[in-house]
Amino acid sequence: MTTLSTHVLDTASGRPAAGMRVTLLHDDRVLFSGVTDSDGRCAELKAIGVTAGAYVLRFAVAAYFRAHGHILPEPPFLDEVQIDFGMTGAGHYHVPLLVSPFGYSTYRGS
């Protein structure tokens, strides 16, 4: 069985990014669309059936930062962050996002 999770941290405020829209796609098909909880996670994501293959996680970062009072330029430097990643087999894949209005980082977590 393969599972997937994500955790979004707002590095501008030093807190979890609660209320950010997250979308998971596979073969241009939406498998999940939801909003991060108070800890910056999408617990429902673990219940999605995933297999080996190429996936995309999209994070609506500009909408999140605007909703939290940040004044962003138009167009914003980062509107959506898209992470294209692959899963090769069974196991757990964790894709964290550390983000501010002007930069982000990701890695394969545990």
Automatic annotation (TrEMBL):
The keyword Hydrolase applies. InterPro entries: Hydroxyisourate_hydrolase, Thyroxine_BS, Transthyretin/HIU_hydrolase, Transthyretin/HIU_hydrolase_d, Transthyretin/HIU_hydrolase_sf, Transthyretin_CS. It catalyses: 5-hydroxyisourate + H2O = 5-hydroxy-2-oxo-4-ureido-2,5-dihydro-1H-imidazole-5-carboxylate + H(+). SUPFAM superfamilies: Transthyretin (synonym: prealbumin). One of its GO terms (molecular function) is hydrolase activity. Keywords: Hydrolase, Purine metabolism. Residues 4-109 form the Transthyretin/hydroxyisourate hydrolase domain. Gene3D superfamilies: Transthyretin/hydroxyisourate hydrolase domain. It is an enzyme of class 3 (hydrolase). Its EC number is 3.5.2.17. The keyword Hydrolase applies. Belongs to the transthyretin family. 5-hydroxyisourate hydrolase subfamily. NCBIfam families: hdxy_isourate (TIGR02962). Catalyzes the hydrolysis of 5-hydroxyisourate (HIU) to 2-oxo-4-hydroxy-4-carboxy-5-ureidoimidazoline (OHCU). Homotetramer. This is 5-hydroxyisourate hydrolase. It comes from Asaia siamensis.
